[in-house]
UniProtKB/TrEMBL annotation:
Protein name listed in UniProt: Beta-hexosaminidase subunit alpha
Subunit structure and binding partners: There are 3 beta-hexosaminidase isozymes: isozyme A (hexosaminidase A) is a heterodimer composed of one subunit alpha and one subunit beta (chain A and B); isozyme B (hexosaminidase B) is a homodimer of two beta subunits (two chains A and B); isozyme S (hexosaminidase S) is a homodimer of two alpha subunits. The composition of the dimer (isozyme A versus isozyme S) has a significant effect on the substrate specificity of the alpha subunit active site.
InterPro entries: Beta_hexosaminidase_sua/sub, GH, Glyco_hydro_20_cat, Hex-like_dom2
EC number, UniProt record: 3.2.1.52
Family assignment from sequence similarity: Belongs to the glycosyl hydrolase 20 family.
Every Glycoside hydrolase family 20 catalytic domain range: 122-439
Molecular function terms, GO-annotated: beta-N-acetylhexosaminidase activity
Length: 479
């Protein structure tokens, strides 16, 4: 019997002691990923019998019998650990332990006597999926959640809507998806499907953080909600085109309040992402009503002040719904009254650590995304560029560095749909996963990490790209 003791997914240390009877030979496992904070593996090898294998709650564990997340994990991992065992037994285990189990050439299962001390370095370890530029079927999202759990990611940042399409089906404003989605039936996410994703993610220990980006990136919104977007002008007359959300109308904020009330009731996470990036001011600048409002508010011709005015109103709406707002760094850069902000996501290229330093110096929390944009140009197989990132390598106090709560891998959808999502993400995203989970000093060598990542890439049947020439013991069978 094997006992597992835990005090939370991202909380204090947990100790994992594997003492399984029947010593046999020698072996080492390469593919433990992400690397635990401390792992001491003995040369002693012990056999595992699937028919007699079981798990029990540790006596000192805060989680005890009846914990739905752990009970579901116990049922899930048996087939992952014993891949060639086809009995109906369902008792199972957890991720790090499952990676330590291996088979010999005859198919027998073994594990080395191992002691592990483990906890995550950062509390926020996310993957961003963009379902506006290409619609991702629910099943593709669920498979991504599977793979995320294997690398110990714990946040799905769901960039659910954007300029190209509005696939989220709102009960309050049904025209948003019926007119703004690529297709009103086949390319939408019903609320029951959203709940399915949230429920599935919960059992993997993953939060679902929704993003409804505004005032820019909202062209699809205007198809189903009249008078929401700003009419653009040319030569003093309307051009027939529309720009960002109109920030000067009271009806705008009434609409946003009703929408976010619905979204907040559907998505239980305490965080909500409000976007706020890449706002094109040219349409606002062309609109006489907007310019008049600017003069009334004494903004002059500084449209960053108008954006800050809009975002402050949206932050206040979501704060009243007891949600912590996350915004892209543009909002911080343009916002003078930063006391209303909580969490800033740093995404721009260049000296991103300079931005991290500025944000933390202002006393705000940071999520780092800049170095982990997987859609950026570069060698397709160069996972090392994502591994060689040092999130805290900026000049600042220890208090500032504590405000860096984590980071995330961003998979934007311009050239990604369900056909290529998994090989684009994996195993490159796993490089970032280890950076966000593991001790930096123990994981500073790309050369030492390579054999572990190569071994890990073969696990779990994920359609991950190969790192080099070779083969997996269990090849991917989905094609």
């Amino acid at each position: 019997m094997y006992a597992f003791g835990s005090r939370g997914n991202t909380g204090p240390n947990f100790n994992l002691l594997l003492l399984i009877i029947s010593q046999l030979g020698l072996h080492t496992v390469e593919g433990v990923w992400p690397l635990p904070q401390a792992l001491a593996s003995s040369a002693e090898r012990y056999s595992l019998n699937p028919q007699a294998f079981d798990f029990a709650y540790g006596k000192r564990s805060a989680a005890q019998q009846g914990c739905s997340v752990l009970d579901a994990a116990f049922k899930r991992y048996f087939t992952l650990i014993f891949q060639d065992y086809t009995s109906g037994r369902w008792n199972t285990g957890l991720e790090t332990f499952s990676q330590l189990v291996y088979q010999d050439d005859s198919g027998s299962y073994f594990v080395n006597k191992t002691e592990i001390d483990d906890f995550p370095r950062f509390q926020f370890r996310g993957i961003l999926l963009d379902t506006s530029r290409h619609y991702l079927p629910v099943q593709a999202i669920l498979k991504t959640l599977d793979a995320m759990a294997y690398s110990k990611f714990n946040v799905l940042h769901w960039h659910i809507v954007d300029d190209p399409s509005f696939p989220y089906q709102s009960y309050t404003f049904p025209d948003l998806s019926s007119k703004g989605a690529f297709h009103p039936v086949t390319h939408i996410y019903t609320q029951s499907e959203v709940r399915r994703v949230i429920s599935f993610a919960r059992l993997w220990g993953i939060r679902v953080l929704p993003e409804f980006d505004s005032p820019g990136h909202t062209k699809s919104w205007g198809k189903g909600q009249s008078n929401l977007l700003t009419p653009c002008y040319r030569g003093g007359t309307p051009s027939g085109t529309f720009g960002p959300i109109n920030p000067v109308l009271p009806s705008t904020y009434q609409f946003m309040e009703r929408l976010f009330k619905e979204v907040s009731s559907l998505f239980p996470d305490s965080y909500i992402h409000l976007g706020g990036d890449e706002v094109d001011f040219s349409c606002w600048r062309s609109n006489p009503t907007v310019r008049s409002f600017m003069q009334k508010m004494r903004f002059g011709v500084d449209f960053t002040k108008l954006q800050a005015f809009y975002m402050e109103n949206i932050v206040n709406i979501t704060s009243a719904l007891n949600k912590t707002s996350v915004v892209w760094q543009d909002v911080f850069d343009y916002h003078k009254r930063r006391s209303s902000l909580s969490v800033v996501e740093v995404w721009r290229e260049g000296c991103y650590l300079c931005e991290v330093r500025k944000v933390t110096k202002a006393g705000l929390r940071v999520i780092l995304a800049s170095p982990w944009y997987l859609d950026q140009a570069g060698p397709k197989h160069n996972w090392a560029r994502y591994y060689s990132v040092w999130p805290l390598a900026f000049k600042g106090s220890e208090e500032q560095k504590k405000l860096v709560i984590g980071g995330e891998v961003c998979m934007w959808g311009e050239y990604v749909d369900a056909t290529n999502l998994a090989p684009r993400l994996w195993p490159r995203a796993s490089a970032a996963a280890e950076r966000l989970w593991s001790d930096e000093k123990q994981t500073s060598s790309v050369a030492k990490a390579f054999p572990r990542l190569q071994d890990f890439r073969c696990m779990r049947g994920i359609q991950a790209e190969p790192l080099t020439i070779g083969h997996c013991q269990h090849e991917y069978l989905g094609v």
